[in-house]
Design goal:
The protein is mainly alpha-helical. The protein contains 14 helices and 5 strands. Helix 3 crosses helix 13 and helix 8 crosses helix 9. Bound molecules: tryptophan (TRP).
Length: 338
């Protein structure tokens, strides 16, 4: 018997172009997994609106930007289904049903949401839609019966929340309609910012974008935070917690050379500018083909949006099948037609 292919679902909020942190945290895994799994990649524009309700134009424009990033890094529409969240109505109906299975207290203690509330300075004025986005994300994941969700570390609480909902649903409605999923977090789950902060994030302004020009990349690498105690070339330097080395660990294909460089840096006698030069070379080589492909695709937005449209048709068929099972389990299977 042929084994069922594992199902993958992931997504991104279209609030800006994607950066190296996205690549390391999940895009790389998505490209690697698309051959062996059935993959759905969602542009989560409705989730983006939970904290951008007053900026619909920004979200709309970034739908195309994120789609370009996906295609440029090698997510292949022949192998993966690309879809736009706002065009899948089943997701919003599922969200409403799931909201009854989650306590307000549980939502308040989601560590990622808590952190985002602080970062965005919401305080008590956090939009209700933002508070419940983990439930909407559970709908995204469960609608496609995803087995695997390749995401960065910060999304683990969303996967836990999803599995709690799935278990509650199946127990309460005596069904096995919904499927539990597993987060797939890579070794380099989190790339620090160029300023040395723990996370690369657009709102912190410390990103190297997949679409950055060669010039922008060199400037950013030159200005990167390193070991603040490494004042003179002769001084021994720290490799741990030094983002220049973390980036090299993530992107440098020549591991032996890199290890030799680390040893030299730790001994002393190796200047930051030389390490940064190496990082610049490595990143330029990695990003140039991505940027070229992106520029080419950007000339034909209709083609790119056509890919999303096609994927959305397929995604609706899958999500509607799950919704039908959910409604049946919940005694909502009325048939008033005719
Ligand atoms: N919350 C995710 C992020 O901020 C985006 C997202 C939306 C997502 N729906 C998803 C991720 C479903 C994985 C699965 O990056």
């Amino acid at each position: 018997m042929e084994q069922r292919k594992k199902i993958i679902l992931t997504g991104d909020r279209p609030t800006g172009p994607l950066h190296l942190g996205h690549y390391v945290g999940s895009l790389k895994n998505r490209v690697a997994l698309q051959d062996s799994c059935q993959q759905f990649v969602m542009i989560a524009d409705v989730q983006a609106l939970t904290d951008n309700a007053d900026q619909p134009q920004k979200v709309r424009e970034n739908v195309l930007q994120v789609a370009l990033d996906y295609l440029a890094v090698g997510i292949d529409p022949q192998k993966s289904t690309l879809l736009l969240q706002s065009l899948i109505p089943a997701l919003f109906e599922l969200t409403v049903y799931y909201l009854n299975l989650v306590t307000w207290n549980r939502l308040k203690h989601n560590p990622t949401v808590k952190q985002e509330i602080v970062q965005k300075g919401y305080g008590e004025s956090v939009p209700a839609g933002f508070m419940v986005y983990p439930v909407s994300q559970a709908a995204d994941i469960s609608a496609f019966k995803a087995d695997i969700v390749p995401v960065g570390e910060d999304q683990i609480p969303m996967i836990e929340q999803t599995n709690e909902i799935v278990r509650s649903f199946n127990r309460i409605y005596r069904t096995n309609a919904l499927v539990e999923c597993e987060a797939m977090v890579p070794k380099f789950a989190r790339l620090p910012g160029i300023d040395g902060k723990a996370k690369m994030s657009k709102s912190l302004g410390n990103c190297i974008f997949l679409s950055d020009s060669a010039d922008a990349i060199s400037k950013k690498v030159k200005g990167m935070y390193t070991d603040p105690g490494h004042l003179r070339v002769e001084d021994p330097g720290k490799v741990e917690g030094n983002p220049v080395f973390t980036y090299l660990d993530a992107f440098d294909p020549d591991v032996a050379e890199l290890e030799a460089m680390k040893a030299h840096y730790q001994r002393g006698g190796l200047g930051d500018s030389i390490v940064k030069k190496r990082l610049n070379d490595v990143l330029q080589a990695f990003l140039e083909p991505i940027r070229k492909r992106r520029e080419q695709l950007a000339q034909d937005p209709a083609y790119v949006l056509g890919i999303l449209k096609e994927g959305t048709v397929h995604a609706n068929a899958v999500a509607n099948r799950t919704l039908k099972e959910v409604r049946e389990a919940m005694c909502l299977n009325y048939d008033f037609k005719s």
